[in-house]
From TrEMBL:
This is Energy transducer TonB. Keywords: Signal. It holds the Pfam family TonB_C. PROSITE patterns: TONB_CTD. Residues 36-131 form the TonB C-terminal domain. Residues 1-22 form the signal peptide. It comes from the Bacteria.
Length: 146
């Protein structure tokens, strides 16, 4: 039963409620290199990554650029922080999210390791999920380095 509740929580959008005001959160994933259309490996589940609870509870928003290695078996290997705002605060919670991803080979090529550069934007604000996604899309257009 606990597992089912945790599983349900992990797929629902994060909603932070403070004195009758709902504050939605969203995470936007951007494939920097290779672009998603040119990648050998993509995530098996193509929905928004989960907003890390540690960040949500502290009201932390920001972005991070990560170098991620997917090995020849489709497992996440190294996750390295390239840059972030705020500086280094989002690395541990974001790394935990990235490490949980499963990957599938979508190319016609044999399985080979692939290095990716991705950007995750962690956004809060808005009274609806649509508003939160719109804020995140705008935030993703900004520079992600201090």
């Amino acid at each position: 039963m606990k597992y089912q509740i945790l599983k349900l929580i992990s797929i629902l959008p994060i909603v932070i409620v403070t004195s009758a005001n709902a504050n939605y959160a969203d995470v936007k994933l951007t494939h920097i290199n290779p672009e998603k259309s040119a990648a050998q490996w993509i995530r098996t589940k193509q929905f928004s990554p989960q907003y890390p609870i540690e960040l949500a509870m502290k009201g932390i928003v920001g972005c991070g650029v990560f170098k991620v290695t997917v090995d020849e078996n489709g497992k996440t290997g190294d996750v390295e922080l390239v840059s972030s705002i705020p500086k280094k605060v989002i690395y541990k919670p974001a790394k935990k999210v990235i490490k949980s991803w499963e990957w599938k080979n979508v190319s016609d090529e044999p399985n080979l390791a692939e290095e990716k550069v991705i950007r995750l934007d962690f956004c809060m604000g808005g009274k609806t999920e649509v508003e939160a996604k719109a804020r995140c899309a705008e935030q993703a257009k900004l520079e992600c380095s201090a």
